[in-house]
Amino acid sequence: MNSRRDFLKHMTGAAVLAGGVPLMWALPQAATVEVPGEDGLLVRSFRFVDLETPVEYFNTWLTPTPHFFVRNHMHEPSELDAKDWRLSVGGEIEKPLTLSLADLSKVETHSVVNTLECAGNGRSLHRPQVPGVQWGKGAVSTARFSGPRLHDILQRAGVKPTGKHVMFRGLDEVPGKVPPFIRSIPIEKALDSDTLLATHMNGSPLTKHHGFPARALVPGWIGAASCKWLTEIKVLENEFVGNFMSPGYRFPNQPGQPGEAVKPEDTHPLTALTVKSVISAPSDGASLKKGKVTVHGAAWAGEADIAKVEISTDNGATWNATRLAHDQARYAWRLWSYDWKAGNSGDYTILSRATDNRGRTQPSTAVWNPSGYLYNAIDQVNIHVS
Amino acid sequence: MSRNVFRRVLKAGYTVKKASSTVAKRTMEKVGRTLAKLGTVEKAENTVEERRFSAVSIVTEDTGFSPGGRSLHQTLAAIALLAIAAVSAQAQKPASASVNADLPSGAMQAKATTACTECHEARIILQQRLSKAAWTKEVDKMTKWGALVDAADRDALIDYLSANFSPDKPAYQPQRSSGEKAAK
């Protein structure tokens, strides 16, 4: 695994470091919240657990698990026993299955490096503001997920021709009368050779926060597709009907006026992520000295590949190509960097703009939608050079 | 200091390009105190290793020191690094915050706490910046989902949330997690 230190070393340390003083140093020392196994993350919520990866951690291709963002809709399962855990597979199939963790371990393992992003990442940046967890830019991380292919499990169960969607139910503990967190994906994506029943993350068994003992891993798609703490897989004739399929996780078919209501019939379920880049350093609000400043960050495009990332240091008047880092995989982000010579004192706005191999480019303004999904406007940081 | 610790410190210090003599002097004074606070060499060793990244980022911002020789350079840099690492470790270990935050005071504080925090904690509310229309939708949705709100309190609850968490309020500043205990 690449370490943060190695990456920074490759990018000529001093300039990067001077430009990228971690945010924790710039702020008064607020008390931390103890969350075992999760270090230095922004606590959006403790109960239930929602933790954001600070953008300054976007400097390793694989995110160390303690720095990997955590998104829960409700409470984590209070009791999970690997020995007693079972996964049922039913619905439109020939042969219902009940699988233990030992059963899964006997199925051929496949690994996928995937950038997992919450559909609501960047929600706090939409205007007008919308309700929900107010993610900044860091509800996204990248890890190597491993486990059996969902395809192999479904093949063993024998999907009937009527089976068109695959539903996932997790062991999330539902508070009050909140609808259970159940979602479905189309059969084509479920049978894709890269869609997994992941049991491992970065080479270790999943931690509880990330779905132990098994989660769906639907690469390139919104994080909500990758249901955690799986207990049931059901093949359905139609898309699952429930709060987290509709009205949840839907996007307007056509961009509307910001703040205006969108009719349910004018929306579609969210699937793949869109094209996006985020600046990791310099930090927004940083004061830098004149000289070389390495601007760096990450860019991803769901099921598409990043074609280029450009940087503007003059508020969009001119754009410069960045250097894309070597590490790449189909569903994973690319790290990028750009050496900027900050020659004059003053205030600067640095912009980053990604383009993918399908020709999609980050817009200057993201499409506003009532739940604040898929924020992907050109990223920017404001800095001062003296 | 064990040989192992010192070797690591030197290795780290070697990467430090510039360290001001002022910083070095100041940090030399601190090093004894901070090591004493840390208690054991073993703990210092871990701390240096974990915090080196942060420490280097601070040291490289200082300029103006021309080392007389490699060993002096290394030693000063190493001491500075160790001291800053140790101080930073202390600074980054404030008392843990209460895991649950509080809603702001007001006539509806108690009722809002009862209604909302049965299912989720207050931070979810503290970070919202919504119009009254949006708060109205949220309160009605949450009531449908089980929040216990007397019909007579609905409007007052919406007013309380709208007054405290409107779009014109400054952005919420989240705390950081500290994951010192190993994950299960």
Task: Provide key terms for this protein.
heterodimer, A: 386 residues, mainly beta, Immunoglobulin-like, Sulfite Oxidase, Chain A, domain 2, 2 domains, five-stranded mixed β-sheet, 26 strands, globular, B: 184 residues, Cytochrome Bc1 Complex, Chain D, domain 2
Runs of chain B in which pLDDT lies below 50 for 5 or more consecutive residues are 1-72, 81-95
Distance between the termini of chain A: 37 Å
Name the pair of protein chains with the most residues at their interface, and give those residue counts: A-B, 50 and 51 residues
Largest sheet of chain A: 5 strands, mixed
Give the fraction of residues assigned to helices of chain A: under 10%
Overall 3D form of chain B: globular
Instruction: State the major sheet of chain B.
Output: none
Strand sequence of the main sheet of chain A, in spatial order?
A: 6-5-15-9-10
Topology:
The complex is a heterodimer of chains A (386) and B (184).
Chain A: H1 4-10, H2 13-19, H3 23-26, E1 33-34, E2 42-45, E3 50-52, E4 70-71, E5 86-91, E6 97-100, H4 101-105, E7 109-117, E8 140-148, H5 150-157, E9 165-170, E10 182-186, H6 187-190, E11 196-198, E12 200-201, E13 204-205, E14 215-217, E15 230-236, E16 250-252, E17 267-269, E18 276-281, E19 287-288, E20 291-300, E21 306-312, E22 320-321, E23 323-324, E24 334-342, E25 346-356, E26 379-385
Parallel strand pairs in A: 5-15, 19-26
Antiparallel strand pairs in A: 2-3, 3-4, 5-6, 7-8, 8-12, 9-10, 9-15, 11-14, 12-13, 16-17, 18-20, 20-24, 21-22, 21-25, 23-24, 25-26
Chain B: H1 3-14, H2 21-38, H3 41-59, H4 70-91, H5 109-116, H6 123-126, H7 132-144, H8 154-164, E1 175-178
